[in-house]
Amino acid sequence: MFRNQYDQDVLTWSPQGRLHQVEYAMEAVKQGGAAIGCKNDEFVVLATLKRAASELSSSQKKLFRIDDNVGIAISGLTADGTAATKALRNDCISHKFTFESQVEIARLAGRVADKSQISTQRAGARPSGVGMLIAGVDEQGSHLFQTCPSGNLYEHVAAAIGARSQASKTYLERNVDKLGALSLNQLVKLALRALREASTDPLTDKTCSVAVVGSKDTPFRILSAEELTSALEGLDEQE
Questions:
Q1: What is the 3-state secondary structure (H, E, C) of the chain?
Q2: Residue 7: CB partners within 8 Å, gap ≥ 6?
Q3: Amino acid 238: pLDDT
Q4: N or C end of the chain, less CB within 10 A?
Q5: Residue 19 falls within a domain, yes or no?
Q6: How far apart are CA 125 and CA 12, in angstroms?
Q7: Is 13 domain-assigned?
């Protein structure tokens, strides 16, 4: 992408009918660390790559717990993702206080998409350069949503965003028919195999992280280093 007279303002359309500021935000998501999500009727699994800016720094967190029944994985600008996480947690707290129940996942994802879309049609704020995979379980079942800086919202059975995510998408497309019959442990391994397709380095508990959420017996949580190491040991076994 090259700087031009049509990318000075998010409200300015190019002659080709494009909003360059929004496209720049979408590009930030494509350049971020890969994030994978997959689900069946009972569970949802999120997996992300952890990338450090240098050998002297720690990696930035890409998985966030929002509530007992919902969490997110992000790709793109981590600072934007952190701000969005705080807003989501506030939405959940407000909904619980008002209705004394957990918010529906589709409603929560819709709020994120609406806020992103507002930034594409009002001056004074840039589009948020972060893409999210929102995983959760409610009375309607398990859900996996993808949000974009453009305000688009998609519901998926399996999804991949971030750098080199096309290889992961291809792997997930080949195995999408298996998702419904998998146990939680098998679903974690499938997500890690898909994540491995997007990684240039071997997966270890230092280079990736995994979170799971399911029914009342499986609240959203990020797997510990021991659990992750155990899951990684069986990746090369017969699928």
A1: CCCCCCCCCCCCCCCCCCCHHHHHHHHHHHHCCCEEEEECCCCEEEEEECCECCCCCCECCCEEEEECCEEEEEEECHHHHHHHHHHHHHHHHHHHHHHCCCCCHHHHHHHHHHHHHHCCCCCCCCCCCEEEEEEEEECCEEEEEEECCCCCEEECCEEEECCCHHHHHHHHHHHHHHHHHCCHHHHHHHHHHHHHHCCCCCCCCCCEEEEEECCCCCCCEECCHHHHHHHHHCCCCCC
A2: 20, 21, 24
A3: 56
A4: N
A5: no
A6: 13
A7: no
CB 128 within 8 A of CB 75: no
Distance CA 106, CA 118 (A): 18
pLDDT single digits (tens) 73-126: 999 999 999 999 999 999 999 999 999 999 999 999 999 999 999 999 988 888
Q: What is the pTM of this model?
A: 0.94
Give the list of residues 6+ apart from residue 116 with CB closer than 8 angstroms, or none: 127, 128, 147, 148, 149, 150, 151
State both tokens at 206: 């230092």
Q: Name, in order, each residue with C-beta under 8 angstroms of 131's C-beta and a sequence gap of 6 or more.
A: 26, 29, 32, 35, 74, 75, 76, 146, 147, 148, 149, 161, 162
Within-domain flag for 18? no
Structure tokens at 105: 């996942």
Look at residue 24 and tell me if it is in a domain.
no
d(CA 168, CA 84): 25
Segments forming the whole domain that contains residue 173: 30-233
**Total number of domains constituting the chain:** 1
Q: Is the CB of residue 204 less than 8 Å from the CB of residue 49?
A: no
